[in-house]
Structures are given as C-alpha cells and as structure tokens.
Design brief:
about 55% helix; CBS-domain; Clc chloride channel; nucleotide-binding; mainly alpha; transmembrane helix; two-stranded antiparallel sheet; ATP binding; transport; about 950 residues
Amino acid sequence: MAEFFSCSPVRQNACRRSRRVAAARRERRRGGALGGAEQVSDCSARRDQRAETGPPGDRKPRPQHGRIQKARWLSSYNRHVTRALAPPVCGHSLSRSSSSRGPRDPLGASHTILGETQEEEDEILPRKDYESLDYDRCINDPYLEVLESMDNKKGRRYEAVKWMMVFAIGVCTGLVGLFVDFFVRLFTQLKFGVVQTSVEECSQKGCLALSLLELLGFNLTFVFVASLLVLIEPVAAGSGIPEIKCYLNGVKVPGIVRLRTLLCKVFGVLFSVAGGLFVGKEGPMIHSGAVVGAGLPQFQSISLRKIQFNFPYFRTDRDKRDFVSAGAAAGVAAAFGAPIGGTLFSLEEGSSFWNQGLTWKVLFCSMSATFTLNFFRSGIQFGSWGSFQLPGLLNFGEFKCSDSDKKCHLWTAMDLGFFVVMGVIGGLLGATFNCLNKRLAKYRMRNVHPKPKLVRVLEGLLVSLVTTVVVFVASMVLGECRQMTSSSQVGNDSFQLQVTSEDVNSSIKTFFCPNDTYNDMATLFFNPQESAILQLFHQDGTFSPVTLALFFILYFLLACWTYGISVPSGLFVPSLLCGAAFGRLVANVLKSYIGLGHIYSGTFALIGAAAFLGGVVRMTISLTVILIESTNEITYGLPIMVTLMVAKWTGDFFNKGIYDIHVGLRGVPLLEWETEVEMDKLRASDIMEPNLTYVYPHTRIQSLVSILRTTVHHAFPVVTENRGNEKEFMKGNQLISNNIKFKKSSILTRAGEQRRRSQSMKSYPSSELRNMCEEHVAAEEPTEKEDLLQQMLERRYTPYPNLYPDQSPSEDWTMEERFRPLTFHGLVLRSQLVTLLVRGVCYSESQSSASQPRLSYAEMAEDYPRYPDIHDLDLTLLNPRMIVDVTPYMNPSPFTVSPNTHVSQVFNLFRTMGLRHLPVVNAVGEIVGIITRHNLTYEFLQARLRQHYQTI
C-alpha cells in the first residue's frame, strides 16, 4: 500500500483499473472468497466517486418523503458507494490466486521431484477462492437466552436426538452401500454373461471382433451415463475423499454435501464400476456417507426447497461437522466391514477437530452401517437372513494354509525383512503413481477443464475405449492357458468360507483357451475387481510370473490415467488389486527361484496390496486396522503396520499422498496438523491483515448495505474510536452518542469491577468485610479524568482524525490517519447482518436503541445453511437513515491473540478451536489486524518467511 501512495499518478490509475476489474470478477462470483480479510478492495472507484459527489455527510438531500426519497436513494446507490466505516485503502487481493504466492524469489523457490517450482504451478494452474466454515460458537445474546432456558430435561432430549441421528446416518449409509453393490453386481453379471457367451461362440467361428464390439457397447454406454451424471453435479467426480477432508478441515467446498451430489455420486459410481473402468466403489462410499451425515439431521435439502420440516436442532456448522465425520466413518465401515477402522479413518485422514464424545458417536454410527449392510447382503445373496456373513462391500476372506501343506506358514520372522523391502518398493511405486497422476491432473486443469463440458465426456469415453481394447487384446494375446486343477476349480477351504464353489468356478475364465484349461490373464481382467483380489489372495499357483508382471504394468498405467476423469471413482480397490499382483509376483519369485517353500502366497499378496495402497494414500493407523478387520486375522497386525510405515516414509521422501496432491492442485487452503519449526521466526503481526473493514456498535443501514455489497468479507470487527473531545463531539448526533456511550459502558476497570462485587456482598454475614470493601472502593474510585485504563486508551495527546459514521475521509490523510486506533469490542458475521436487515431490526435516530426489535436464536438460524444474499435484498423496503444496534448479536468474546504471538501458537489455536477469524489485539485493546485461514496456509507462510529473510 505504501508503494501505491508513493508511485506516479499513471501507476495509480493502472492500479485503480486493475482493482476495479478484480472487484468486478469477485462481484460476479459473489461469495467465493475466504474469511474476513481476504477480498479485493475497490477503494479506487469509491475515491473517484467521492471526488465527484462529495462526502455524504455534506450533501443536503431535497425534502422528499416516502417511497420517492427511498427510490432516489436507491438510484444513486450504485453511483456513490459510502464506505464510511472503513479506511479507503487500495489494498491488494488476499485471494489464494494472488497474495498466497507472495513475492517472487527465484533463488528461494522450492523445487519438486519433477523439477517444477511452486511459482510455475501458481502461474499456470487456475485457482479458486474458498470460504471457511463457522466451527466456533458465536456466544451472543440470543445464544445466551437459549442457555438460560436449557435445563437437564432439554439437555437429555438434545443428546438423545443426536444419538438417534447418528444411528439413522449409519443405517442409511449401509442401505446406500447395499443399493450400489446390488446394481453393480447386476450390471456386471449381465455384461460378462453376454460377452462370455459371445467369446465362446466366436472363438470357433473367428468373429472375436464382434465380441469386442459387444464389450465396447456395454462399457461405453455405462461410462457415458456416469459422465452425464457428473455434468449435472461436477463435484460428484472422483472419490470425494479430498473434498470431504477439506470440509472437515474447515473449508466450505460448494455443493459437496448436497442431495443432488449424493444422487449423482451413487448412480454414477455404479455405472462407472460396471463400465469396466479401473475404479472402485469404496472411496465414493465415504463421500456418500458424509453427504448423508450432513443432510439427514437437517431434515431439509437445497434440492427439495418446497419440503420444510420444523426441526430446530443442529442448525450450525459445528453440529454438521460432527455428523459429517460420523457419515464418513460409516462409509468406510460399510465399504470394508471395518467399524473401528472407519472411526480411525475419520480421525486420521478426515476430521481436524475431535472430542471425546464424538468418538463414541462415530463408532456407533460405523457399527450401525456395518450391521445394516451385513444383515441385508447376507439375506439377499445367501438367503440366510440374520447370518451376518458379509460385513462389507469388500471381503478378503480367511487366510489359512492348506491342511496338506505342512511347511506352509502365514508368515515368519524371516519374512519381515521381505516385508520391509516390499514396503520400500511400494512407497516408490506409490510415489511414481502420484507423480504421474499429478502431471495428468495438471494437464486436465490446463487443457480439458477450461473447454466445453462435452470434452470431459469424450475424455471418459476415450479412457473406456482404450481400457476395453487393452483388456480384451491382453487377455487374448498375452494370457497363458493353464491346466485346471482341483484348487483352481474349487478353491481352498479358507476361500469357501466367504464364497461358494459356484462363485469360484465362475471367476475362472476360459477365454481363448481349449477345454480343461483357463486363461490366467482373463481371470484377472474379466472379473469384478473384488473377485480378482480374492483370486490373488487365495488361489495359489494359478498365475505365472509373466502374467502377473504384465497385468501389474497395464493395470498400473490404466488406473493412473483413469483417476481424475469426470466420473465418480475410487482408488482403494484399484490400488489393492495392483498391489496384490505385485505381492503375488514377489511370492512366485521367492518360491520358484529362491526356493522358500514355507511362503504363503496370500500373505505376500496382502502385504503387497498394503504396500502399494500405503504408498499412494499415505495412511498408517486407520489403514492397518481396516486391513486387519477385513482379513479377520490379528496376527497380520505387525507386518501390515511395518509395511505401511516403511511405504509412507519412502513415499513422503518424494511427494505427498494422492489426496493431498489433489487438494493442493485445487488451491484449497488446507491446514496441516502443525507448522514447521522454522515458521516460529514469524509472529502474528507478520502474517495478519491490517487493512480492516469494520462496523460500529450502532451503524446506519446505508453504511451496512454499502459494506455488505462492496465486500465479500464474512465477519466484521465491531469497533469504536478514541478521541479526546468526545463530550463535545456527542452534541447533536444521536448515532455518535450511542457509540461513545457503548464504548464507555464496555470498558472494564479494576475499580469498577470491585465496586460491582462489593454490591453483591450484602448477603455476606460479616458487616466488617462489607464496610472494609466499601471504604476501599471509595478511596480508590477515580474520577473520569483519573481512570487509568481510560487514560491508556486515550493516551495520545493529539488524537488522529476520526472517521465517524456520518463523516467521510479526507484525501490528504496520512498512513497513520487512515489506520487510526480502534478499540475492539467483538465480531459480527455477515450472515447476522443480512438477517438483521431482512427482518427489519433497526431503530430511528429519534428513538432509543431499546426500541429495536429483538430476534431469538431460532430466528437467527432459521435460514441456515443458505442465508439471504445482500444482493437479493429489496432496498426500497429499507430506510437508509435507520440505525442498527449490532451489539446483541455480535460475539463479544472471540478468541484473540497478541501481535507478538508466535506463528506456531497462532496456528494451534486457530486449527484446534476450528476458527474462521482470529483478531489481533494489542496491549490496550485496540485491534491491529485479523488472521484468517488464508494467512496460515503453507504457501502464505513461506512467502512471509522469505520476506522476513530479506529484511534481516
């Protein structure tokens, strides 16, 4: 800003034009920014307008009344925007697309494994501004009224309703998983049944091209439907785990938890899986469970606006966050039959804010989802209602050596060394997978997403076409015809514990092979991915090393290409299948070429799956428990844990996990668990935003509408100003008088507090104590000039010029005059201000503020989560000279920090308390800046740290 005032008039005009363009773009987005101090200032336009029209306080309106005067005020509103409550400073944009990059520093730019710099990514990739969620409680007067009316009976009822909602979320998530699994099986059986019959007939007649066309017809149709559903709701693409992780971190991703998103996700994933793409349905189950958790307790939906329920509970982002955590955990539990693993997943990978009471509710929700899915799947698939044989969508079966093999062991101490090596290789493979997928994602963001939506559909069809042709040709050309054995036909005893012999026989594919033989490549490619995983886990000796190696390479490349296209898709099952092939390949090599006869191939397939999946997603605790619960074998705990830890350490050396990579590419301001130690060189004053937009305790409607329409901030500090001649200034202006009276009444002194306490001591039996306190207070009671705290607040001998609501700033003000001292009293949210305007909460200047209508907590939260937009407000219904008293609705005690607070302390407070805005207040109660989520992102802190080094 100092550069702006010191530059030439030509550069100032250029700055004004660029700021106007940026402000216009932000206005069209309307609300796409993050937090209180994160938007473009359009002060240049306002400065020009003030030069033309003059200050609003100096203009004398014509004596017009009623609707004529309101209409004239409305017509001139867009020509002259009065921002009487904020300094007109031409500030820079604090959106992630600009200031998060910080100053250019070619020498200090950090290079990635690919050789690119962060600056190159920011320069090329499109960015988007994100809003934060209000996880902190706003303890204002309406909220305190609710607390006063709360008794034990109401508290127990509220807790009981919350437990009922948690149970309902688990049941609904289980039913969603049942629906997806049923139709995926139906479509897959239909497709493979037709294709298998065609292949068997055409193998003799020489018309295999017709079989390929039939397979292409099925796959392209299914993928086309899945792509169309994503066009309806683009946020339904992918697994949804990165978006849910951002939501639980406190970032509002538009449309991520809507009912329309759930419908497109559920129907889209069953078509994408049935379409033969190398995707899984387990990842989207997590997203689906989160959407159920967000919407079910609300009893309303944006997609179904006409359906309204008078349900007064859970009308805050804080409550919704807890239910989303429970829904995400229920999705994991339904996918893998792992309720404990789902709880740990929600804690490790999803939720950034956790409490003890939430743990029980999340676990109960996960158990409800597992119970529901197990009950209905066992009854539908086996006709045995109540047997509970299928706990999740993906079942690994029981790992057990054959009774005829006396040398076989599930694993031995010597095998741990091989597991460590497999963990290293899995981490390297996962890092390579993430690196390639990141390049593909960046290419799509630059060349596919900016183009018409039809291009995304064509990309999905292209991937489906290539995948289908590769699968068909590889099975026909690269597959080996192997002799069927009893093991291949029926499977071992452990395998039959989870599936019948008929399922085993149906999973053995004889494509392109003579009688009594089967095609090992087709057995892996022409089966559902879950069946292929079971083959690798439990069918010993049925796949050659060459087949496993070729399958791994083809599947690795196609799965990497597929993840990121515009279809609902998961990554868990493709990673497990790819890793299982790698593990079986290692087991075959150790058995055939090294002669280790004690090796159980299923164990190495499981460890390979864990190594590759851990190298891709970089999860440790939750993934260990998920795999243990899925295998029902606690003895695998140590090898799985060791493998996942080694895979994570190896992969983290090169890049981040796949979900974190996609979060970073989207430009989401995600807050990690903690900051780097080096960041403690910075303090709160180094990262805060000093250019504030604020309101007064009593503010005119005209000023509020101006602020709300010309900014997209989501919270405003409530402040008063300090000046020495307040008594003289109060004369003849009721608005200024009310603000000054509020400031004086809100100042707490030691003497005043002691006086208040002494008045409450009348109930004490000791009159001596009361008399002593009264004498002490009388002796120390200061006059108005002797109030120490008041003197500190007004410590300046020559106060800076003040900007009161009916004044306009001067063009000749210095930097100190623009950034004058402001006494901080609290925070008021944009949604609260708009609600007050919509409901007509105001009073006239001739009345007392006590005559202003009061809103209850239920009325304030009635429009949650879609509060009215200030741009949709009918200004003709408002009197611009009316005054709004915001003090009953502001949060008078938000979390604040000192300017000297180190960044690590600021970060921990902001993240652990789930804050959206963090005011910076100096030693005398003056607000000097505000910190939002954007100011704590890694990129922003790195930029500030480079500036810190340059000033040393």
